[in-house]
Specification:
Order of helices and strands: HHHHHHHHHHEHHHEH
Helix content: 55-70%
Number of domains: 1
Radius of gyration: 21 Å
Shape: globular
Distance between the termini: 31 Å
Number of helices: 14
Largest sheet: 2 strands, parallel
């Protein structure tokens, strides 16, 4: 579905309506929202303690399975619903120094400060713009025909499977901008500083998961180490799946850099709408995805608390229907299948296609 039918007045109206929705939710934030994030953190910490306690007897298969499963859930919650969203600034309005984007360091090998630059700033500013948003294929995958084909893309189904298993390391390297390093256009001092920080974070994570806790389990050292490794892989595969299903399935659009020329806030909103996809599910499913199953709403309002996305989703969908815009959504199985089809298809040569023009008549920039 193209956006060519939108007029300058439509873009301005979309901007007003979505700004008003954001203002309404922001004004309503309060005690129930704060209680929600405190409750999730308590549950996550309880699950982690319980999982690690079970792994003290990890040589027993039932304890290993139960401990690994519990620790996996704890790591997913910390990564998705807590770490990702806290570092987006979704809870900064509480003024709680312990739950704040400037102080939170997540259970992940990617340093928080580097992630916030590559994700919060680069990705959310240039969402799905080829050449600007490094999340388009993560720099190693071809996920759209607009990306020129190269023989190096041929093994990308296997590359993507490996990326899923070790996703946290791919995320950790993201802010290095490998393409600039290969071109020789990076700042060597800055690159070395980032690598040192990544190294420190990896040593910290490995020391915790692969040394300290296995040692605490005594003779169960190897089985506990294997459980911690498995929990990290489960968390990585889940995070990769949810993120890819929110960005690459079906008819989700990518854009050329020209799209950014003179882009207004209304056009930015529309780019988020057409460049994102949701995943259908229940409350527990949405919790386990960090509410990134509401990827459309997250891209529109990345710093609104995640527990509000389900509430505003019907109104965002109604706006899309009003302006004849797509609202990409589907079951997890459908979105996974669609995404992997793209991974396999675009590993092979294919014709380039041009992204549709953003509008027949571009609106004038709205004054701040």
């Amino acid at each position: 579905m193209s956006t060519e039918h939108l007029t300058a007045a439509d873009y301005a109206a979309i901007e007003r309506e979505l700004d008003a929705l954001r203002d309404e939710i922001t004004a309503d934030l309060g005690e129930r929202d704060a209680a929600y994030i405190h409750r999730v953190i308590r549950w996550q910490r309880g699950l982690e303690i319980g999982g690690r306690a079970l792994l003290m007897a990890s040589s027993l298969p039932p304890a290993w399975l139960a401990g690994t499963a519990t620790l996996s859930v704890a790591k997913i919650l910390e990564n998705m619903e807590i770490g990702h969203n806290v570092m987006h600034g979704q809870w900064d309005w509480m003024r709680d120094p312990k739950i704040h984007s400037t102080t939170w360091e997540w259970d992940n090998v990617s340093p928080a400060e580097q992630w916030k630059h590559s994700h919060n700033f680069v990705h959310h500013t240039y969402t799905n713009v080829i050449g600007k948003d490094n999340d388009v294929g993560y720099g190693i995958l071809r996920v759209a025909p607009e990306q020129p084909w190269h023989w190096a893309y041929l093994p990308q189904p296997l590359v993507n499977a490996v990326l899923a298993m070790f996703f946290e390391y791919g995320v950790a390297l993201h802010d290095l901008e490998i393409d600039k390093i290969c071109e020789g256009t990076n700042d060597p001092d800055e690159t070395r500083a980032k690598l040192r920080e990544i190294g420190r974070k990896i040593r910290r994570q490995w020391g915790k998961d692969y040394l300290a806790f296995p040692l605490l389990s005594g003779p169960q050292f190897m089985t506990t180490l294997a459980a911690n490794f498995t929990a990290n892989v489960v968390r990585n595969v889940w995070a990769h799946t949810i993120i890819f299903c929110g960005h690459f399935p079906g008819d989700v659009e990518v854009f050329e850099e020209e799209r950014l020329d003179g882009e207004t806030k209304g056009e930015w909103y529309v780019r988020q709408l057409t460049g994102s996809a949701n995943i259908a599910g229940g409350r527990l499913f949405h919790l386990m995805t960090g509410n990134l199953s509401h990827q459309i709403e997250h891209h529109l309002f990345p710093d609104l608390p995640s527990n509000r996305y389900a509430e505003i989703a019907p109104r965002v969908r109604a706006l899309c229907e009003k302006y004849d815009l797509p609202y990409h959504t589907g079951s997890l199985s459908r979105q996974v299948t669609s995404t992997w089809k793209k991974i396999f298809r675009y590993a092979l040569p294919g014709p380039r296609r041009s992204s549709p023009a953003p509008a027949a008549t571009r609106p004038e920039p709205v004054a701040a």
